[in-house]
Amino acid sequence: MWRVYIAELKKLCLVVGRPPAASRGGTLSIGLGFFCSTSGNELSTNHSIRLHNLSRSSVVRAFQRNLRDFIELLKLSCRMGLAIFRLGSHFVPFASHPEFQPEWAREIENTLKHSANLVKSFGVRVTMHPAQYVVLNSPRQDVVERSLAELRYHFWILDTLGLGRESVVVIHIGGVYGDKSRALRRFEESLYQNRWLLKRLAIENDERYYTAQEVLEVAEALGIPFVFDYYHHTLNPSSFSVDRLISTWRGVVPEVHISSKPDRVARFGEHGDYVDIQDFKNLINIFNSGNPIDVVAEAKGKEKAISKLLKEIEREGMDSLIRKPMCSPESTTLVLERFENSL
User: Fold this and answer.
1) CATH class for domain 2-33+96-342?
2) Residues 273-319: tens digit of each pLDDT
3) CB neighbour class for 186 (10 Å; exposed up to 12, middle 13-18, buried from 19)
4) Cβ burial, residue 121 (10 Å; 0-12/13-18/19+)
5) Among positive and negative, which fits the CA dihedral 208, 150, 42, 84?
6) Going along 94-221, which residue ranges are E strands?
């Protein structure tokens, strides 16, 4: 149960995990991945329920479906040579809701612990990215408390799976609320008052309020990683130091996000179905100092977008840049069979 678990976690400021090594001044290598589900939702880690149907059986049923699909998505990532995958925030539906019962969490926690070795056996990095309603700099204390509850849940998932500090939980700083300086102070105060957040929290530049340079400065001040989002940077640009960005990760391979604008833009900041190869080249030019990065493609086409991008990368003669995980779906068959039989 994460409410008990997190009490012990609060004693820690920083925890040394087992991160992938990020050597400074080495050779640029790029691990690719997609997020949450396949493009048609045939496989998804975000199967959920309606709040009025919240019960032990409905939660466990949705969670088990998400867990099975999660394993299949890791197998798919492995087959495609992908190094990173973003786990959906609805993995355990309504887990941060006040009506979610502690005994449900204990039951789910046991299953997660049983699944940990299988998840790690694929060698695919797993991270999470809560929705935009997680706002730690809100002037409303009730919003901050709900945000903290949601983050406790995300940390609980990754901790129970036994994943290292490379498995970050990515959020935006939040809004401006008429005074950016005060909004930034509220964000920093939320972390100082909840130092357990320093274990996994990472912050990302957004398309409206906080530029890459501003987020980098906050990340450095708080000692947390900065996740660079290329598309947001094109919409809300600034100058920033890539070397300083890499330093915020303290030896872990940085997570980076990429997407491209859609053919027809319906709203500001909307992501396209695919990643434009020119945007990928531009990203390479930004990170040209020879450091490995893991790139989550936030394209709506998901695995189809990745397949298309990989073909274009090969046509451009850049396929040597792609770093694939040391994994084999076949090598996990026996463990997978035991796991499925236990559900």
Assistant:
1) alpha beta
2) 999 999 999 999 999 877 899 999 999 999 999 999 999 999 999 99
3) buried
4) middle
5) positive
6) 125-128, 169-172, 201-204
